[in-house]
Amino acid sequence: QVQLVMSGGGLVQAGASLRLSCAASGRTFTIYRIGWFRQAPGKEREFVASSGKGADSTDYVDSVRGRFTISKDNAKDTVYLQMNNLKPEDTAVYYCAVATTGGSVGYAYWGQGTQVTVSS
Question: Are 109 and 2 in contact (CB under 8 A)?
């Protein structure tokens, strides 16, 4: 079992920056990939970014590439999503999720979600 606790988010103006945090606890040694997702009102949840253990294993959706960056603090078992130059279309509830070895296929554990609202 892995538990994920998210923090960050909030209300900002277009062009501003925010950093989301996703702190993992439990069997964190089983984590092999972390993903960030978002869901805007009336829309389906969409993939934003993901990162594995390899140096070249980070991926971003085209709409955020160059503006969002995943980073990790292994000592704290925490992953961050730095979001720069935010746009109104980035408004959504953001989630982190992890995929683990020896468990269910795909992203089996999810954070509680945090609201990001970008005003124009």
Answer: yes
Total number of residues shown for the chain: 120
Q: Tell me how far apart the alpha carbons of residues 48 and 25 are, in angstroms, rounded to a whole number.
A: 22
**How far is residue 118 from each of residues 70, 88, 113, measured CA to CA in Å?**
20, 5, 16
Overall average pLDDT of the 6-27 stretch: 97
The reported pLDDT for the residue numbered 114 is: 98
- Separation of alpha carbons 63 and 39, rounded Å: 14
Is 88 within 8 Å of 15 (Cβ atoms)? Answer: no
Give the C-alpha separation, 17 to 34, whole Å. Answer: 21
Average pLDDT for 41-66: 91
In the predicted model, is pLDDT for residue 56 greater than 70?
A: no
CA dist 33 to 51, 87, 100, 109, 115, Å? 6, 27, 7, 11, 23
